[in-house]
Prior knowledge:
DNA-binding; 11 helices; Arc Repressor Mutant, subunit A; 2 domains; Tetracycline Repressor, domain 2; homodimer
Amino acid sequence: MVVFAGQGDARRSMSLLWRVPGSGAARGGRGPKPGLSVDVIVDAAIAVADADGMAALSMRAVGERLGRTGMALYTYVPNKGELVDLMYDRALAELPADYDLEAGWRPAVTSWAEDTWEFYLRHPWVLQVSQARPVLGPNEYVMLETLLAILRETGLDAAVVRRVVGTLFHFVRGAAQTVTESREAATATGVPDEEWWQTRSALLREVVPDFFTRFPMVAWLESDTAPPAEDDATPFLEREARRTFEVGLDILLDGIHAAVRRAGVAVLSPAGSAAGREE
Amino acid sequence: MVVFAGQGDARRSMSLLWRVPGSGAARGGRGPKPGLSVDVIVDAAIAVADADGMAALSMRAVGERLGRTGMALYTYVPNKGELVDLMYDRALAELPADYDLEAGWRPAVTSWAEDTWEFYLRHPWVLQVSQARPVLGPNEYVMLETLLAILRETGLDAAVVRRVVGTLFHFVRGAAQTVTESREAATATGVPDEEWWQTRSALLREVVPDFFTRFPMVAWLESDTAPPAEDDATPFLEREARRTFEVGLDILLDGIHAAVRRAGVAVLSPAGSAAGREE
DNA sequence: TGCAACTCCTTATGGCATAAAGTAATCTCT
DNA sequence: AGAGATTACTTTATGCCATAAGGAGTTGCA
């Protein structure tokens, strides 16, 4: 389930996101005292989504957590989409906003990716907020600013950095998503990863007896499965996803490194001085 | 006989996916002739999802396209989730199943990524099928087999190839997703990308007057925006996503290349000859 | 011929977002 | 002080959704 940005009044949603003074509930002091606030509602909504997932996030569920009906929320928030945008931007505030660049961009990007990964695992529903038309809230920009401050160190030009940012996000989000989705599947069905895989692969062998002759490369791939460490109780899909994250990140960083070196050569060698940057 | 959670269903779903003979509708020839079939239903469902998106895929919508009620489908398919799995595996059959390896793995992976990208744009709903616990249908395995046949050429060992596969998928899916989501947003809201961006950025400047001092790196990034080619009418979020796909893929392939070279060195100098890792 | 097996329909049930309208609380203005 | 305006929140209703339950009609085999 992908959740789209609220499509209502763009001005109102921007004002809510950036906390423009006059836009709160208390404008004229006329009617009864507001018992809630946008912040309280957003917090409650995040709590619901963290606990039970995006699918369980309903206006009613949030209202009930605050001792109200679902409809009460519409006094503060124009619609559910807008609420999700607010949740998204609020959650983003948790992310660290600067990284040590002493050792260069590479360890900094690694830390950034690690923190982002953990953030997604902490708030799986964030991965279901559409990326195409960004929310454009303050914390989204802080996050972007943070990553850009690291990537500036590569010396790559803006056009390339833009794509590197996109690539990093696609990768981290995708890797984290396999973890959150497998967790969701486990709790939703009540069947843990190991049991699921055992049942399915046994069934597969039964239903498709010639499996390994039909798919020799898959057979080769599976031949490699290393047993988990004794003391590691992580479900195996999560373990796989984690390894993909680690190895994939290194590959990605090697790729960026190659781009940096190429750009460095291009920049340093036109004048003539034989460029031996880094290493 | 003890039935594990989901196991009975698992057998049925595997039989449906792999088209096990006895599992079709016509077993005893007793009642009225079946007017539909799983295949017809799956095709109709794909047509609905292609045309109106995953959100519009309801049992009723599929039934109506076939001149039935929504409930009629439950005779053929146990539930909506199963139908989606069948749609997924069926759609996957469109993908090419082998690639020319004359010129090595790199151009082959590039073609593969390109084809996969186009496939996702053709069937945006596919990106909403969870990846964590794979469907394990025949075409999913064909797809995997195809990619593995290419990656075997790298000479990397299975453990690494497994991660490379994951990384490639995360990347291509993520990049394609920004396109499909921005298209969906455009049709859902009726506001095209350009207009959306113009409205929002004007609003942003109004609501946050000190934007560019607060976010200098973002300012730097935006300074770079190249105007689109005269004859290019692609919405700009799509254009951005496409560039990210192209540049990101190259970066990724450079990273894989580095891994291959490293592994090659490791293999060639195992005995101890002080391996001067790259350059 | 009659029943079992089968397809497909109608009719709940309980969920969802949200529109519309009602109730009660609290302010400002007279 | 009292009236009207304004606001918070509730109730009710609309029209979606998946799917459970049960019923109607069709067909082939005993």
